[in-house]
């Protein structure tokens, strides 16, 4: 069971992490663009 949990967490990190980072960067860039105007 522990091996499966490690595999699942690794899969979770490799799929979810880039999505979260992409969303944060998108929101941050929008915030910067709105702030400059």
From TrEMBL:
The keyword Transmembrane helix applies. Pfam families: Fst_toxin (PF13955). The lineage of its organism: Bacteria, Bacillati, Bacillota, Bacilli, Bacillales. Keywords: Membrane, Plasmid, Transmembrane, Transmembrane helix. This is Type I toxin-antitoxin system Fst family toxin. The chain crosses the membrane at residues 6-28.
């Amino acid at each position: 069971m522990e091996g499966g949990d490690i595999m699942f967490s690794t899969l979770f990190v490799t799929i979810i992490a880039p999505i979260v980072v992409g969303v944060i960067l998108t929101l941050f860039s929008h915030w910067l663009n709105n702030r400059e105007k």
